[in-house]
Fold each of these.
Amino acid sequence: MLSALPTAKVYVTLKKGVLDPQGLTVQNALEALGYDVQEVRMGKYLELTLADRPREELEADVAEMCEKLLSNPVIEDFRFNIEP
Amino acid sequence: MRFGVVVFPGSNNDHDCYRVVEDVLEEPVEYIWHQDSDVEGFDALILPGGFSYGDYLRTGAIARFSPVVESVKRFADGGGLVLGICNGFQILLEIGLLPGAMLRNQSLKFVCQYVNLRVENNETPFTNQCVNGEVLRVPIAHNEGAYFADQTTLEALRANQQVVFSYCDDAGRVVEEANPNGALENIAGIVNDRGNVLGMMPHPERCSEEMLGSLDGLKIFRSMLAAAKAPATP
């Protein structure tokens, strides 16, 4: 039986100190609904379905993808985990 | 002076730029498709505005990997003039020919209007026909125009006089009320440290003919022409 292919779940977020007007607008909306929210930072979430290869290779590849294309190091940070 | 206008899938100001060079400057001009990698024989390259690759992921992010980009980099490294307008500026940031990054407008709105630009440095190949402190009327049209750079980069830009245009009021004062998009310190256009690559959010190609309401943009194209004819730029 085929096992599920590995999936990388990638989160790209704005660096601290970079203004996030969308996050601010969402925070205001949540506060208007009566919730106590101290800060909202919006980011991007990507799911990459990968070929079944050794974990270390996948980790290295995804890190490289994040550095090359998926994030801009001037304004964004990234993190990811690979499942299963 | 031979101009090349680089066309990415989603560029939509390429014809405007082409027209200004051909009909107003009356200089030779050709389109360069993004899959081409030959930029030999050109004296200046223009990266026009638009929505390359639909602005997906980040503006300019995917255009960065077009075959033509490596050639544009080599062309710039060799001292060739490169002008990036709007999305072209965003691409220059993504490919690292200019420092910093572009964020979404602080208002979260697409802004399309005339703005005032204060000329901060007229000793560039793009502004030699301007006077320092002069106010140009040039339109903007963008959703991601809030220029951002970290403190170290900003200090270097200031120290080398790389900020070429700032958003200002009618009197030429660089004030917060004149900032249309939340750009850091009202920055509207910058050059690289060598001065041969300019990125600007406003559209000079949309105000280079009398019938379009302003001729101020033409000063930038005329400056490039003057620079090419007297190539003793700093």
Amino acid sequence: MTGAVGIGTLTPRGKRAWLLGPALALADLRHEWVLTACMTLAVAAVMTPILLLLGLKHGTVEAYRTRLVQDPAFRGLEPLRSREYDARWFERMAQRPDVAYVVPNILRGASSVLLGRPGLERQEFVDLLPTTANDPLIAANGARPPAEGEGVLSFAAAEKLRAAAGDVLEMVIERRAGETVRAALTVAGVLDPRADPIERLYVPFALAEDIETFREGKAVPQRGWTGTTPVPYPSFDRAYLLLPAPLSPADEARLTLGTGFTEGGRIDRAELAAELGLTVPATEAVYRLRVAAGAVQRSSLGTVADQLRGRGALILPQADGAAEITATSAAGSHRHPVAVVGLSPDPEPAERAGLPATPWPAFSSRNAEVSFPSIAQALVPSELDIGDAGTVELRFGNLSAGGSAGVPLRVAGRIDGDRLIVPADLLGMLRTGVDRRVVYDPERRGLVLAKAGNRGFRLYAATIDDVEPLHRALLEEGIDTVAQLGEIRKVAMLDRGLTRLFWLVAVVGIAGGIAAMVSSLYASVQRKRKDLGMMRLMGMRQGAMFCFPMCQGVGIAGMGAALALGAFLALAHVINTSFTLGLPPGSSLCHLPAGHLALASVITVTVAAASSFVAGLFAIRIDPAVALREA
Amino acid sequence: MHILDTPEPAARTRSPAAALTLRRLVKRLGAGRSTTAFELHVPQFDAHRGEFVAIVGESGCGKSTLLDILALVSRPTASDAFTLGDPPCDLRRIWGARDHGRLARLRAARFGYVLQTGGLLPFLTVEDNILLPLRILGLPPDRARVREMAARFGIDRELAKMPQTLSGGERQRAAILRALVHDPAIFLADEPTAAVDRARAVRIVADIEGLARASGTTVVMVTHDIELVRGRADRIYGFTVDAGGDGVVRSRCARVEAPADRPS
């Protein structure tokens, strides 16, 4: 052996020097394996119940949530009161990101139909709901959307009717006593029991709407169901009055009092000529009545007529809107934009005012019974080239947005000037098409007022968390809805309650764990004072000294965490296999995602490292002299 | 059994190089709850390279206080000089700077310690215990050399065992081996014979003396039994205790002129 080690070797910094602390710490853990096992068990004993509790909380809440999320019934919102919703409302709703699906509903009173097997006496009342493709209630409950002529039954309905998918049933729709129609319906599927507790029939939207129409007393021609046909009422924006003598100021003022018109006054006959293309004698007093917003109907004109009774007044109601006519003849098709004027005056005052003769009934402010063919006529300006066409097709309204449907009009004659002259009733009916849907029914050869909108809806939020905000948003629109808010709140409460409980237990457990860990490591450092002092005396660095309890803490925590994870997985398996009742398939009562488990382990080791920090500080403060003292 | 069978006289013939030098050193300890105030005075202490120096005294004489200072774990209150090695390393300055890292490195590199009961770490095998100084220094573990040295010490079959399974003598030999494995300049032994019987104690001291002679390592041995070191130590330091009237116990450490040729 040679002499002293040189100064140069006093500061070795090899890789091995770094590992010394951990290596010694682990050697000590291995040497005192009984104590190590005890501490590992202590850590696992703290962590396992916390993991189990967290797993139960997570699993229970998740299972319940899954049930709510999977089951569209919990995401559904239905209006409390019936009200009309137009197509734009449905479009707007469907576009909301928090709305998964919305379908119009028919009037509650119209939704009850009789269903039974054809030829059998036994028939049952079922409630009818319209559905379309992508209906989550249908899709999530084991059925496919019904096609035309098909229906989907709720479980209760299928049970009552003893019907299964593929069966052909007969649907009986009754209007008034004795007035019934029948339709064959193939069962496309039967929903799961949870979908709908009552006897229900889901049919394509078109059929439901037709049933509603029939129930309202109207005809459904495409199904051969008879009934009345709603004819559009006429509505107007303006009216011109022609009087043989001017009105007193008081009478003039009365024209806008309770008549529906909001402004009015006398105008020059030149203005009349400019606005209607009609020239009247200078003896005529001309008044113009207007509405600031909206339109007036026949009754308003009746009120004005009553006020002017006996004065020989001519009332010329008019509508604002662009028009174009299409004339199809052997020479080809001609399209002409044209200004349209409604003119159905009584013959006698018309003659007085020099108005062109009109070959159609005069406009009555009272009688709504007008035969459509008698008003499907027009006087076409002679300057328009319509070839030898006997009819022209008129479209009216906002033409850039499509306007009304084309209405075929008989060419009753040609006329000077540039205005197309039509019956006032026709113009008024077309004007109604600006606000409501007015369609031309070629079969009936008449205008039909289509349904304005739907009386209800069935809506599904995208997630259960969207239900409550959606409910509030609809309430702000004045639409009170029924939703499973109670159930959803219950889950939130369960979640909150269990979270609180979990934290309570976890905090107590973790505090106990920290106390146990700190005291164990501290006691261990105390017990090893002499050995640690010897290590200090031998010149071990502070870092390595600090590492010693630190590594032990982390090592024990790591083993404890691994043990706890193993115990948790085993116990969770036992719990999940013993309690499977009342849980939706695929969900478990006790479950934690891998991320949670990893996080729990990391937290345990971090807490252990923090706990052993104290012990580490104590270890580096040990006086190396204790090694020399305590024999 | 002797540690080294063939002592080399080389150390003695060379001109003495300083290993540890103390001049006018004072260590003051304040009064504790059960202890009175204490002052240790060391006017002059020298240990040269390859020398066997013994510090002898009863308990309470300041022997432990001096050992702490020599072991670089206790800070002298005052001193004119406190150096290690040749060329001298100024320990006064290092203590003054409170450079504990440097002190730890000096302890690791320049000292080998043997305590009363050996001071082996119970959680390491004998071999790992012996290799520990090398690992602390970041040096590669020279297992072959350890095996060879252990064979000479007669504990080669004990290397894989845990310390608590060894006898007191074997443990002490393992501790000595550990204190030597990194070729320290100073071998510090604190009552290394406390745990063994007289015959064994004599043999251990002989081994330690032989070691100093053979390797040029400076041996500083603390003992309460002057008979063990008489005739073997190159220098013996003793203590004169004076319980002063002012409530302060003063102890003076000085060289004892021991008759070197007196048989032990």
